[in-house]
Amino acid sequence: MDLSTLLCGLAPVGPQDHQRKLGALKFAHDKLREIEPELDFLDFVRGVPASILGQTFGYSGEDFYFTALLSVAARDRAGFDPVTAAVLNRIVLQMNFQTRFIGSRGLPEALVHDGALELFAPCMANGNVVIGLQVVPENPNPRDPPKWAECSHIELATHAMLWRELADVGPVMADLGRNRIGCLALTLPVANLGARIDTAERYASLSHLFHDDSFFVISASAEVALKAVADLERAEPEARIVSRVYDASNGERRAVVIASGLSRLPSLTLENGIEQVCEISGGRPRAERGEDGFAEHRFWHGPDGATHEVVKLRPPIAVVASAPMPEEARRHISADQIFPHLAHSFKNGSIVSSIDQFHVTYLHFDGQGRLIDDVGEASNLPNTPIVRASTVDAEGVKWGLLKANRRIHVKGAAMPLTFTPTLHHFHSHFLLQCFPRVLILRDLGIEATILVPPTLRKKQRQMLNMVGIPDERIVVIPPDAIVQADEMIVPQPWPLVFSPYTLSIYDEMARKVDPNPGKPSRRLLISREQRTSWRNMLTYDAVRQMLVDRYNFEVLRPELLSLEDEIIAYRDAAMMIGAEGAGLYSAVYARPGQVFMAIGDEDYIMPILSSAASGRNFDVGYVFGESIRADSDVERRLPAGHSDFVIDPEKVATLIERVMASRA
Fold it and tell me: What number of other Cβ atoms are within 10 A of residue 408's Cβ?
């Protein structure tokens, strides 16, 4: 099979592939246990990137080989690109003397890899004849082989793996008696280089080693790689060029390009990445809209409206608790909440994702590179790499360097839908703090592009479509890119309550889907069966059985419903009960006369449902059990408690009885 077969075989895993994938994973796990005897199979599989589990590599034999190899290599190569690793390893295997020029056309060949260091070992696996040279900017010393190289099914010829500065590659090959580069691979971005790479200039010292049978490989963002394809096709119409676009594990849209039959080493100009020097100002300059800098906008009740709204919470018709509730907890479901109504805009503004183990946030900066710390999620800014690595000049100004793979320009105005790159993963936060932002653009009279994370769910995008935001106005913020707009609009983050303002968008959706509702009649329990991370209700099965058997409740799984059916289900319920959380908060579609009841614990008492009840005019009740938390977590209680909890089914029954009595 040739390389085009491998690229054509990159496809989503189907039912016919499951047995083979499982077999490859079991084989890889068995071999890994040679060096990690206690490794559990499920723990091993959890560490395998989705880009290996979820796609096939070539036909069945190649897929088994690459699944087994790459899943092992992923053990200590977090973040490496499996697709590029598979392509380069396939080329290395093809360059082995068994399938290439034995004697007649020169000595065995070399792979030269310029780019991500974590790819070098996987791409050299089982290449026992090929010399591999990894280009490094400095410190060209031997590296220790990865631990997985000790597995018996992998041969890693570490003596043939060399790390050298680019200027030394040619002389090293001459010293080794090698006169041919079989593959020159460029994986972007390359660290410590400028924003652009001229391939003819960068690799001029290697041109005499490049021949018409050499492979030239580019792995880069899809935009950069596909532009390179077009340039290669114009310059080398007789060459063989194959490419494949794919989604990397980090959400980036990437492509790999393989060219052979080239008349010479290609001359391409490639975007290598962006380096943005930022002034970390610690504030925001004031300016009118359209000028450089920031401007403040009020949108609630027009441009002269108030900057804040007071949200009243609806008093519950019944509260049942296993233990006395502290006064602090009662305030969470009764005290007024302050709700801000401010947005900022800035000309030629940019937004970029910033994520590591310490934080997750968006960074915003204006056309002059001034990074602003009071929009978005301000509390995260001190934890970001750009601030942690910043320097202060002689005048006391703090500077930082922001790096990204590319810059995407959006014409006109744009607004991020979320205030962190991962906030939408929690659907409750999406309902509360993200989706209603579309109202701000309406009230400002701006038809802006909506900027969304790459992992926005299908139903969340459908919500945007339903309120008049077509796909053409939705642009993804890739994890590797700076997105710049002519005008960037960044609303101030909202607290964890619904306000009459944010609820109006859900009223609009409800009237559109269910304009003539009948009388609510169903009794619904929101399923908790799929909750496996935190806030598990450990007595859920007993509660479910009691509600179904004694009170004729139906179990509802909202995640399985279409958006339209979900809205109708929540409007059809005379009574609905569920654990405090996202499933219950679709009560935003409810109407007067309904009742929604939350099951929680003394460490997780939130005002969210009461705020929705106040704006939508339905009744609310609460029943509180006990959390299962460590004594050391006492400081993480309200409103941050996320431990598992237990609830006495009879306490839930007491709540149901009180609610029914109040409505008799």
Answer: 18
How far are the Cα atoms of 12, 272, 522 from residue 404, in angstroms, in the given order? 28, 9, 52
Each residue of 458-491: pLDDT tens digit? 999 999 999 999 999 999 998 878 999 999 999 9
**How many Cα neighbours within 13 Å face the side chain of 629?**
21
Tell me which residue has tokens 């009742």.
595
Residue limits of CATH 3.40.50 in the chain: 79-272, 500-662
Tokens matching residue 82 = 């499996």
Q: Taking Cα atoms as reference points, which of 116, 132, 125, 126 lies closest to residue 81? A: 116
Say whether 352 sits in a helix, a strand or coil. strand
Radius of gyration of the chain (CA): 29
- Check if the beta carbon of residue 605 is closer than 8 Å to that of residue 638: yes
139, 224, 141, 150: which is closest to 189 by C-alpha? 224
Cα angle value 165/168/172 (rounded, 5°):
125
- Give me the percent of the chain exceeding a pLDDT of 70: 89
- Annotation: CATH topology of 500-662: Rossmann fold (3.40.50)
pLDDT of residue 5: 66
- For residues 62 and 41, what is the distance between their CA atoms, to the nearest angstrom? 22
CA atoms of 592 and 589, how far apart (whole Å):
10
Type of residue found at 141: N
Amino acid at 221: S
How many of the other CB atoms lie within 10 Å of CB of 254? 25
Place of tokens 């009840």: 613
Tell whether domain 79-272 is in CATH 3.40.50: yes
